[in-house]
Amino acid sequence: MNEIKDTVRALRDAYEEADKVYFHLRTIIKDAADLIESLQADAESYQQVKKTLSDEGFSDLPAMIARYKQVMADANEIDIAKDEEMEQLRADLAASQRRERAAVEDLKLIVDAVREAHCDETCCFACKFDCDTSINDSGVPTCECPGFERDDCFEGRGPQEAGKGSAE
User: Fold this and answer.
1) The pTM is what?
2) Using an 8 Å Cβ cutoff, are 117 and 125 in contact?
3) By Cβ atoms counted within 10 A, which residue in 15, 58, 123, 141 is the most buried?
């Protein structure tokens, strides 16, 4: 009789263990199904991205990277060329400004020499302060430039706007 009792007890223990194994197995199966669904969604998303990239002409990633590198290299060459051009323009501007200053200084020397020799307004047309110096009805000049009496009034007119004055 003990044998039967032992067998029944062993069967009942196995039943309880099977219940635990069954519950654990159900959890594993559910987690596996959830994971498969998640992977399927990821695969569909990947396929959509791949299709979008292909539709946009980016189906070949190595070719796309090579093209990007070429575009960047070309842009860098353009930047270098623009930098060199900018340096040349700055050098040209500095040289032009030096020539302008020298020309104004030379013009001042010429104007001062003419004024000393002729003691008149012959060269005033080239001056920044050029104005109508005729005498008005009350016997006073209409305008007078600063420093005329000291023979130190000449100042170059400076750059002229395009279409105005004689510098175009």
Assistant:
1) 0.42
2) no
3) 123
